[in-house]
Amino acid sequence: YEGETGSETDVTSRATWTSSDPQIINVYSAAVEGIRAVGSGDCTVTAKYKNKEYTCTIKVEAADSVSKVVLTIDNENREVREKRYEDVSLTAVYNSGKEVDVTSQATWSSSKEDVLSTTKGPAAAGKVYGASEGKVTLSATYKEKTAEMEVTVNPEYNMVETGFNASTNMEKTPGTKHVVVDFTCTDQKILDLYLKENEEAIAEDEEPPYEISSETVNARISYETDVDTMTYSFTKLPGTLEELQTMPLDDMFDPMAANILAIATMDEETITYGNGFDASYDMYNLPIYEMFDWINGPNDSTELSKDQMSDAYSSMIDMIKTANGNGRYCYFKGASPQTGYDPEYPYEFTLEESPYILGEMEGVAIANYPERHMILVSFAGQDSQRYCDVYHSSDGNWYSWFKSWRNLVSTIKQEWIYW
């Protein structure tokens, strides 16, 4: 109390105290001990002294009431991938300081359930599901306390369109190459055919087409011939399956070229196509498999086992991560261990037809093997050529045969490091 002279006097014990709700604040002993909170809620306390009243409205919270809730998601960037679950939780913080996980007791909602689903997880079990690409507000409420968070759902794989279209970004230049074929013949029937052709040429005073070391199997056979080649040049490289599919498959070299382009779509550093990569799931579902399947065509309905897929994934990891991700460019001109597999521009490689042709045959794993041609590529990442078997389909297109792409995703030489 402030007197007329400006002096101050403690008149607590002489004031008359009242409470608008004694069930919330008890003032019976206020003159001695002060007011006491006995419940929770809003209450007005009045102190009267010398015909003057002084009031104060007080909000009383129970010691164990919730002061706030904290929403967390198991991703520091608050991102979820399409077709993936992400862990979420809600923690209640009480006035007393204790914290309790109330995830299962909370009411969850998403501003766009078709983007981020709280019911498919469900969120009450600590999971949200990325249903489609977009941004949402994730909310969780417990005992009238609400927490919100902005969450981004990213594409399942980070395939980036480059604007590639084969009609404008690809050129093909045909050519020929003179080669010497030298092999060991282990089939007497085939050897007899070579011997007969040699005899017929000699009988007609012609040069024998083959040099044959013996008339029995394991004979060494050598001959010279010309093979077709095709040089591909690109001003852009495709980034998605749809862009790759602008490439026609109308000659025998195209499937091999398409496989090389597919390998080049892999991410520079991790081949994971974006954040949140889970090898236990993703090694069997990489977008590049869809590209390979398209290049395989309609005649190849066989499926790789999980063991085979795991082996293929490991091979791709070893190959493509070489030179900080540049290994994916190993088949292009200029890409070598010495250059860290940095390709020249425009992107270019040359393919050649092998003189060997595999005829049609009946099989066990596959009912019918069509006539297959072998396409070869020479590159600086390995001492020997790599190949892809191709076949001409009844739809008029050429396709890669029986997962031949696996021949192209093998280990390559490591880049040279200069000190």
Question: How would you characterize this protein structure?
Answer:
The protein has 419 residues and is an alpha+beta fold. The protein has helices at residues 166-169, 188-203, 241-244, 254-264, 279-282, 287-296, 306-320; strands spanning 16-19, 25-26, 36-37, 41-49, 52-60, 66-73, 79-81, 85-94, 99-101, 107-110, 116-117, 127-130, 134-142, 145-154, 170-185, 211-212, 219-234, 347-358, 361-362, 368-369, 372-377, 386-392, 398-400. Strands 15, 16, 17, 18, 21, 22 and 23 form a 7-stranded antiparallel sheet that branches. Strands 6, 8, 9, 11 and 12 form a 5-stranded antiparallel sheet that branches. A hairpin with a 5-residue loop joins strand 22 (386-392) and strand 23 (398-400). The mean pLDDT is 88.
List the defining traits of the structure above.
single chain, 419 residues, alpha+beta, 7 helices
Q: What is the compact description of this entry?
A:
The chain is of the alpha+beta class.
Q: Show unreliable segments.
A: none
Report the radius of gyration as a whole number of Å: 38 Å
Overall shape: rod-shaped
Q: What is the terminal-to-terminal distance? A: 84 Å
Give the rounded overall mean pLDDT: 88
Secondary-structure element pattern, one letter each: EEEEEEEEEEEEEEHEHEEHHHHHEEEEEE
Structural class: alpha+beta
- Note the main sheet: 7 strands, antiparallel
Helix share of residues? 10-25%
Structure summary, number of beta strands = 23
Task: List the total number of helices.
Answer: 7
User: DSSP strand (E) fraction?
Assistant: 25-35%
Summarize the helices and strands and which ones pair or pack.
Blueprint: E1 16-19, E2 25-26, E3 36-37, E4 41-49, E5 52-60, E6 66-73, E7 79-81, E8 85-94, E9 99-101, E10 107-110, E11 116-117, E12 127-130, E13 134-142, E14 145-154, H1 166-169, E15 170-185, H2 188-203, E16 211-212, E17 219-234, H3 241-244, H4 254-264, H5 279-282, H6 287-296, H7 306-320, E18 347-358, E19 361-362, E20 368-369, E21 372-377, E22 386-392, E23 398-400
